[in-house]
């Protein structure tokens, strides 16, 4: 139960930092989506990466993953950088309330399929719970909206979901070879955050340094929150099946819907509430273990 509660909390933290990235300038209201361009988001991710790297550097000095885990760390760093680029694309061409649920909802299904091939198995009840979580998350993406997301937004969101599934499986396997989740997480964020920050600074260094204090504060907060959120997930993967952790983590989309409604003037409505209830039911089924 402690693991499940921790992952649910990580889902909340994930929704918070994604909302910060979706609106890096801190604007709210109906014009918020067009107010923040891709340049702002690259700057935001540079600050997030820099914050994560600085925060994890002291831990990395004293906690080093075991040698068998390093191929997974390096692979995950590459996948996380790809995920970052896809996420920026998502929030540039799509609406937060649509692309976020699609990206997060598609990932657990892919993780479950791969985990099954790796020998992890869920009960029928848990499989129904997984389907409910993913279906509810997909419904959240379209409920209460005038139409489906545009093709570029849909492709970017599905690509993001695939990258999430890829690094989730890699990290789940890697951390089990690392002899401790703390060192694995610290080195992952030190390398990934440092590379992202260095890349953006090399191209847009002046713009990053000239970013408003508000953007620095929000993005730095996002860096701390994202590191904590995924650190919890990596730890949970040493204690529970990958598919369970992946699905429970994505319940943060419920919080994303609430954040979108409260801060970004995105309509919640009865259909989105019903979709959130389906996700909650799926979580209950996922936690139902055979006697």
UniProtKB/TrEMBL annotation:
<feature type="transmembrane region" description="Helical">
    <location>
        <begin position="182"/>
        <end position="203"/>
    </location>
</feature>
<comment type="similarity">
    <text>Belongs to the EamA transporter family.</text>
</comment>
<feature type="transmembrane region" description="Helical">
    <location>
        <begin position="153"/>
        <end position="170"/>
    </location>
</feature>
<dbReference type="InterPro" id="IPR000620">
    <property type="entry name" value="EamA_dom"/>
</dbReference>
<feature type="transmembrane region" description="Helical">
    <location>
        <begin position="69"/>
        <end position="88"/>
    </location>
</feature>
<dbReference type="InterPro" id="IPR000390">
    <property type="entry name" value="Small_drug/metabolite_transptr"/>
</dbReference>
<keyword id="KW-1003">Cell membrane</keyword>
<feature type="transmembrane region" description="Helical">
    <location>
        <begin position="272"/>
        <end position="289"/>
    </location>
</feature>
<keyword id="KW-0443">Lipid metabolism</keyword>
<keyword id="KW-0997">Cell inner membrane</keyword>
<keyword id="KW-0444">Lipid biosynthesis</keyword>
<feature type="transmembrane region" description="Helical">
    <location>
        <begin position="215"/>
        <end position="235"/>
    </location>
</feature>
<keyword id="KW-1133">Transmembrane helix</keyword>
<keyword id="KW-0812">Transmembrane</keyword>
<protein>
    <submittedName>
        <fullName>DMT family transporter</fullName>
    </submittedName>
</protein>
<dbReference type="Pfam" id="PF00892">
    <property type="entry name" value="EamA"/>
</dbReference>
<keyword id="KW-0448">Lipopolysaccharide biosynthesis</keyword>
<feature type="domain" description="EamA">
    <location>
        <begin position="153"/>
        <end position="287"/>
    </location>
</feature>
<feature type="transmembrane region" description="Helical">
    <location>
        <begin position="42"/>
        <end position="62"/>
    </location>
</feature>
<feature type="transmembrane region" description="Helical">
    <location>
        <begin position="247"/>
        <end position="265"/>
    </location>
</feature>
<keyword id="KW-0472">Membrane</keyword>
<keyword id="KW-0813">Transport</keyword>
<keyword id="KW-0441">Lipid A biosynthesis</keyword>
<dbReference type="InterPro" id="IPR037185">
    <property type="entry name" value="EmrE-like"/>
</dbReference>
<feature type="transmembrane region" description="Helical">
    <location>
        <begin position="108"/>
        <end position="141"/>
    </location>
</feature>
């Amino acid at each position: 139960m402690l693991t499940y509660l921790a992952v649910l909390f990580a889902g909340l933290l994930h929704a918070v930092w994604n909302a910060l990235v979706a609106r890096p300038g801190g604007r709210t209201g109906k014009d918020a989506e067009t107010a923040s361009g891709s340049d702002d988001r690259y700057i935001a991710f540079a600050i997030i990466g820099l914050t994560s790297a600085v925060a994890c550097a002291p831990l990395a000095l004293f906690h080093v993953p075991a040698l068998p885990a390093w191929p997974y760390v390096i692979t995950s760093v590459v996948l996380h950088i790809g995920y970052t680029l896809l996420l920026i694309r998502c929030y540039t061409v799509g609406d937060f309330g649509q692309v976020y649920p699609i990206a997060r909802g598609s990932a657990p299904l892919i993780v479950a399929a791969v985990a099954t091939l790796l020998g992890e198995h869920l009960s029928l009840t848990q499989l129904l719970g997984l389907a409910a979580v993913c279906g509810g998350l997909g419904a959240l993406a379209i409920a209460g909206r005038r139409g489906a997301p545009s093709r570029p937004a849909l492709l970017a969101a599905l690509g993001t979901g695939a990258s999430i599934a890829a690094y989730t499986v890699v990290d789940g396997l890697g951390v089990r070879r690392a002899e401790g989740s703390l060192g694995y997480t610290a080195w992952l964020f030190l390398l990934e955050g440092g590379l992202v920050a260095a890349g953006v600074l090399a191209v847009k260094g002046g713009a990053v340094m000239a970013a408003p204090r508000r953007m620095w504060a929000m993005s730095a907060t996002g860096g701390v929150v994202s590191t904590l959120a995924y650190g919890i997930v990596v730890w949970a993967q040493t204690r529970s099946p990958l598919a369970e952790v992946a699905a429970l983590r994505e319940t943060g989309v419920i919080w994303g819907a609430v954040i979108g409604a409260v801060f970004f003037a995105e309509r919640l409505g009865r259909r989105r509430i019903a979709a959130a209830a389906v996700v909650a039911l799926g979580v209950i089924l996922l936690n139902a273990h055979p006697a």
